[in-house]
Batch of 4 targets.
Target 1
Amino acid sequence: MKDRGRTAFWLLLGSGLIVFALAMGYRWFERGGAFDLDTVRIRGVRQADSSAICQVVGPMFGTSIWQIDTDELQDMLSDIPGIDSAHVSRVLFTSLILELRISEPVFAVSDSSGVSAVSSIGEVLPPRFITDSLPVVESREGIDPVVSMALAVWFGASDTQHDSLSFKYADRGLSVFVSDGYEVLLGNDRFSERWAGYQQLASSMSTSEGWYQVDMRYSDQAVLRKAQVNSASVGGEI
């Protein structure tokens, strides 16, 4: 029993000395700069603001990669406009890998301040995200953030061919101008539901009737208006 006790004691002591030596060795190497950040690899940067990324990461060069809070760095990178999310990982001995998920623009807003792209979560993106393929909503003033988010959901999920449509936003909400020359008024919410209702109605509408507006803002019905007649209402389920 005594021999077993002595063996366990020496094993415990030896293990403790090894751990202590490793800890001291790590501290010695760290103080010598063996783990100081000198390389950052970025994946998925594309349209992200590289200068903004440099401002976040730059001050960390020369700091031990083990002293860098990767969760905090991920949050800082995700706060940069145009970046949806970020993942940071360490690579021995002196590197970090930044994996970025870039925001996807789904439509653009043209107002008195210029043209801005809007992401699939309703975030206003930097100008470099603007492309010719984005549907453009014209607005004299800015669009309420809640409405902008609802529009982003609709444009992001819709399989509608936007090339033949034009969009305007005003006090009454979103208006869609179709190739037949009339306006489809969708209001400020339920865009997908109301547009689907209009498409169902449009399949049976006669363009020769002279409609200039189809108002979809009312529950379970559409209001069709002619240029020289006050209004004609079509009720019932749509």
Note: The chain is about 30% helix and 30% strand.
Target 2
Amino acid sequence: GRDRAAMVANVVTFRGKGALRAVGKVLGASEILLSQMSKIASSRYYRGAGTENIVRALKNDYEQQNPEGKKISWKLWMQLSDKLHSFPRHLGIHSGGFMLADKPLNCLLPQEPASMPGRSVIQWSKEDIEALGFFKIDILSLGMLSAIQKCFDYVDFYYQQTLSLHTLPDDDKATYQMIQKADTVGTFQIESRAQMSMLPRLKPACFYDLVIEVAIIRPGPIQGKVIHPYLARREGLEPVTYADERLRPILERTLGIAIFQEQAMRIAIAVGNFTPGEANELRKKIGAWGIKDFNRDLLPLLQKLESGMRQNGISPEFAEQILGQMRGFAEYGFPESHAVSFSLIAYASCYLKCHYPAAFYTSVLNSQPMGFYSPHALLQSAKREGIKILPLSLNFSNWDHGLEKPADEADYAIRLGFRLVNGLPQSTVDGFLQVRSQTGPWYSFEHFVRSNRLARDDLTVLAGTDVFNELGRDRSDAIWQAEAAPFQPLLDDQETPLRWKAEQSLERIQKDFKSFKTSLADHPVAVIKQQQWPFRVALQRFSLSSELTSLAPDSDVFAFGMVLVKQSPGSAKGMVFVTLEDEKGFFNLAFTPQIYTRFYRQIDHQPYLCVVGKLQRVNESHSILVKRVFEADNSARLLAMRGRHQKQDDQTVTPIELIKPRAFH
């Protein structure tokens, strides 16, 4: 029962930006200055640069615009922030640590109620629990499991097909063909830029190939420099060899290349003079993601392993490869069992996307927030796959997105749900949906208002979605009426609506994004190209993402698109990767450290990028090695329009905005 189970605590400490903000508040810094600091500290250009460099950059920028900046104690701000770094801030909850005991936990350790009802938190960290020898397991939730179950339910209800994880065919040819083409937006694990670039090269054709795919794009294999040798051996361009015959049974299934943590452990025993106990200790050390003291915790074991391999006649090249993997595994690496489990979920998501795409996208959209892509990117991908997207409707939409078969369509379309709307509480939606179920559809704006008596703020938010258009009120008029509703005891059905200027394309898209994170109008990139091109480069020079397959490798490519994802993995040696979206698909951009340093202000802060670079092609995988980022002219500015997730990890997120006339700030 609950008295014998509890979540494990996590000691949250002050980090760079948090320490700077906390000290800045104490020193009386304005919110404007703190926001400017956050913007600088969040930039990849200043990642790992240290407090001194961040404060110096902030000082230079701020004093240029504000003479009073010279009165700020910049040095004290920097010194106090450095001292506060790594100091405990508050007690949080570990993401998955869960302790079970055979007696009430109150007899063993201190607890406190969690913020979530019905949960308890142990006031000790996972390191404390492990040191005391208590039983702890990690239970991590996966949003994709919820999405898959929802999809099974939709397939059962709409297609009369009963599916489950254990009944899916494991060798579906169409599914693997889709995977090989990297058509994996929205799926599990293999939807990232790096994974999608690898899929056309590795070409998974069976389940174990998928296991390799899931495991190989990790810091362990990357730092061990095994990806290219594995692909070369897989394609028959390089012979399969073993540094020692004792390694054949360990590495035969992966073509002589160590990919999984278990293989590294077995290698340590076979040719590193490790006992099974020592190998298990090595496993524990590299399995503790984010080792706090590398020299203390892992370096002695790696030195022992290197010495053992040298004594056993292992080549220095292979030894360094294994040691590199160990260092990478200490950041993040996969045991084979973990990769197999994830691959099962990845395959299931791909099978559903391949055979029931409308149901799949609907289930993923109804499981947000999760995954690599925002609702906007998922809906755009669905549209490119031929799935019809139906707009929000007072008479047909529910809280969740749903499936609906239009009279003129052979397959189901996706009907948007009110969960997509910014600032609209589910309780409000549940209320008017209950009225709809009792009274039937609404026939006018006034009918809806009289039936529901919504709060003015909720009615205004609803009007901002343009959902009253189906009842004869355009967005501007509906917002006007919503704001005026509290001042009119009764709305007159016969009142003639005011005439409002029709929305222009860019205006409509901007309002849609502000209201519900996407737009069913033309893609913003297409509209900008057609109506308001703000760059001093001829539009005719630009290629669509769908045209990259017809271009010669190493040719110059001009690309323009909306920024979806930005990444700079620690294993990428300073490279920055950006995924752009245009009206036809995605561009994968790569920036060298030198190019990033030159253009980091645009890359980090502009929601649209206009670039030129060299086209790189490996099999069917394309990317652009950027040479230059173009600046928009002074007649353009950016208006807020969010098209990406707010995420807590490496994919730093800023609002996506729409280009409109006015100078940049």
Note: DSSP finds 27 helices and 15 strands in the chain.
Target 3
Amino acid sequence: MGTDRGKVDTMRLPWMRSVEPLAPPTHEDLIRLVALGDEAAFEELYDAVAPRVYGLVRRVVRDPAQSQEVTQEVFVDVWAQATRFDADRGKAMSWILVIAHRRAVDRVRASQASADRDLRQGIKEYQESYDDVADTVETQMEAERVRKALETLTDPQREAISLAYYGGYTHQEVAELLKIPVGTVKTRIRDGMIRLRDKLGVA
């Protein structure tokens, strides 16, 4: 049979062959663009690494809402500090995770310090009959002593106090979480505070 002259041998026409797609930009490429103020590159970088950043932050901070806040802070830092990134000193992902870990640790320390202050204030409020030593309580009670004293409470007392002072819940919210009356919550916190006062040497 004769050759079909209507058919074209594409093997002889290199320009008609499929073109290999360009490789996607690396994290390092994206950070270089971010350093130049490229918002599209920043969005692409965010989409690429945000899950890992949030995962690391969540493991340190634990609280989901705070973890989301810290993750946003991390990317604000990435945008602001992109010009400082040096590819010769490490990978972009490592650089970003270092920022994330530092931010997460800072948040935990700040939250712990705030909770310790709230607990110390709460103890002072539960010892109205000891006004003469109230001023010395805050200086005597360091965070480590407070934590050790908490370990001496009953489980119900420690749970109620931890939720109220470290979890930031109101008495009503603690009652709902533990499924007990508000009066019971107040009693556990009051008794626990009195016991903490005695353990911490406030006479």
Note: Confidence is low (pLDDT under 50) at residues 129-137.
Target 4
Amino acid sequence: MERTIARYRSEAGLSGPNDSHTRSLEFWRREIEELQKTINETEAQLRHCIGEDIEMLGMKELKQLERQLKTGVERVRSKKLRIAAEQVNWLKGKQRSIQEENARLKKRLHELHDGNISSRIWEPTARKAIQLRTIDDGSHH
């Protein structure tokens, strides 16, 4: 009896108590099927990109795949070259900075070295002058 009523409602376009639930389930079933189809197609494309499962592809599909791969390789190379150029520029800046620091340290070393030589030249003379003053001061008393 319930089946007959459900069939009548269905034929007449009347919704039953479970009709919205049934529509919801049907919607999600179709949604799952579509997503599964998309996943399968994407996985197949990925396999083709790495050279797998290409035996069944025709000339047109192979040429399209080749174009896609060339475009991808060009993008990868471009990105790689951009990163390499950035690294080279950074390293050149680092080199400049290190060379400037090296020049500054060399200058400081020369200043210290020259100062050390001056003190060695003047130190004995200064000691003699102090000794002479001490002697002079002692003899004047």
Note: Residues 2-108 form one domain.
